[in-house]
Amino acid sequence: MSQSNKESRYLIVQTPSKEEHKLTVHDGDVAILAKDLAQVRLKGLTKDGKEVEKQVTSFDPGFMNTACCESTITYIDGDKGILRYRGYPIEQLAERSNFLEVAYLLIYGELPTATQLNTWKERIMSHTYIHVTLMDYMKSFRYDAHPMSMFIATMAAMSTEYPESNPTLTRRDLFEFDYRARNQQIFRILGKAPTIAACAYRHRIGRPYNYPTESFRGYSYTENFLYMLDRLSESEYRPSPAIAKALDVLFIVHADHELNCSTAAMRHLTSTRVDPYTAVAGAAGALYGPLHGGASEAVVRMLEEIGSVDKIDEFLEGVKSKTRRLMGFGHRIYKNYDPRAKILKEYAEKVFAEVGRDPLVDIAVELERRAIQDDYFVSRKLYPNVDFYSGIIYRACGFPLDMYPLLFALPRIAGWLAHWYESLREEKSAAKASIPGATHVMRARQICIGDIEKVFPTEEESISKQSITMDALKTYHSNLSKRRRAPHKDIA
Ligand code: CMC
């Protein structure tokens, strides 16, 4: 915990043998340190009846109530529906800022001056080219490769391009003390990620890859991305400013969301000091999962399945009887309207003004209206989340469903890098102030519920004591391999 947290309050824990332990409650938040908990020791029995003394551990699968770092990046009040980056409300940032400015704010902690912003933008935009070996690598994927898989693999492959920036190959503390090296990776990753994403998209739709725009044209971050996605043979192609702005707002609202699964994965990976390309690829892998970055796609599929406004009641009955789930509703943290959903609902209309109204939005708006008046959803505090409207915007803009997680991952890279940057600073101050745990590699504990000790069996014993049947090894075989392995029988 930070040194400013004065140790003033205690939680008294009494063990079954009436021993009392005083656990410090740190001010500001009501957290106790796990290392204090470890001082409490309890007696227990092993399976074979031996008495053992063990330190107490908190057991928290899914990290429902465990903080693993202190952070100044994002503030969320889920009950009130508040999201702020570095203290600035998300609504104000969406209205008055742009993605690159927000990325700077997240990483460096302050809004940039005009000069800092120009330099920041210039540095990132001058790193948008990717090496020809990476383009060749991307071309070697199957024609129908998922863009997210291509992105993850190519981002990881990028680490091979910069051996001098790899702590495994140079020095362990490369990034802790060399802020220029740190910045260089940030510029490269933010600059090249949209290029890799655009190549993955072009690969998927069978069009040649585009190079980034020339910097003198002054395209914004999202304009350059749209240019690489959509330019055909035009030498002066410029995407619609309204669509570029809407994408910029989508990028802003997705940029950070404190320790969600992929950001936690980023902190976990970088705690080993692995290079940031590998870490970003790993975090993107976590985001790729359907329980994290896949919900916007699920919303579109759900709305398509409902099909028309007159089928909404029937669908909601299915949700209430728990045979269906209302995708894009509910959130682990927000027990109120997700502020990002409000912003996107407004931007959906702006996008429709450019590309035409997507009929699914009428179903979405009516579905939301009925759900937020229904006692089932009200009593469970279920409101629309960010994914309720983002998928409709992507669909209206013609993005294929498999691009949705990538459109989420791209802006979230800013948040991942901000957490990496912050953890490196923790590292530096931890060296001075000996903050418990901050410098450590992240490694959770487990509760071992298996056999503690066994003797390796003899051959006869291993066969007779076998509790796992051959069914455990069953798998699927494609028709192709069935054909290949078809038995040689005599033809009658
Ligand atoms: N539709 C219907 N019922 C729901 C829903 C939903 N979307 N979400 C929660 N519930 C019900 C749930 O059945 C439970 O009811 P009961 O008390 O009768 O058992 C109650 O509400 C509490 O739900 P929970 O599962 O304990 O809530 P959770 O915090 O574990 O789950 C969630 C959060 C996001 C996984 C869940 O709300 C959900 O599955 N939503 C749909 C998927 C979705 O939209 N995901 C995107 C989340 S936002 C992405 C981001 O921020 O990065």
Give your account of this protein's structure:
This is Citrate synthase. Belongs to the citrate synthase family. Keywords: Acyltransferase, Transferase, Tricarboxylic acid cycle. The protein is mostly helical and 492 residues long. Helix 2 (90-96) packs antiparallel against helix 10 (241-254), helix 10 (241-254) packs across helix 19 (404-433) and helix 12 (276-288) crosses helix 19. The model has no long low-confidence stretch (mean pLDDT 90). It has helices at 34-37, 90-96, 99-108, 114-125, 132-139, 147-158, 174-177, 179-205, 221-230, 241-254, 261-270, 276-288, 295-306, 312-320, 339-355, 360-371, 375-379, 387-396, 404-433, 459-464, 479-484, and strands at 7-14, 20-26, 31-32, 41-45, 51-55, 74-77, 82-85, 88-89. The termini are far apart. A three-stranded antiparallel beta sheet has the order 1-2-3. The structure holds carboxymethyl coenzyme *A. Carboxymethyl coenzyme *A binds next to loops.
List the helices and strands and how they pair.
Elements: E1 7-14, E2 20-26, E3 31-32, H1 34-37, E4 41-45, E5 51-55, E6 74-77, E7 82-85, E8 88-89, H2 90-96, H3 99-108, H4 114-125, H5 132-139, H6 147-158, H7 174-177, H8 179-205, H9 221-230, H10 241-254, H11 261-270, H12 276-288, H13 295-306, H14 312-320, H15 339-355, H16 360-371, H17 375-379, H18 387-396, H19 404-433, H20 459-464, H21 479-484
Antiparallel strand pairs: 1-2, 2-3, 4-5, 6-7, 7-8
Bound molecules: carboxymethyl coenzyme *A.
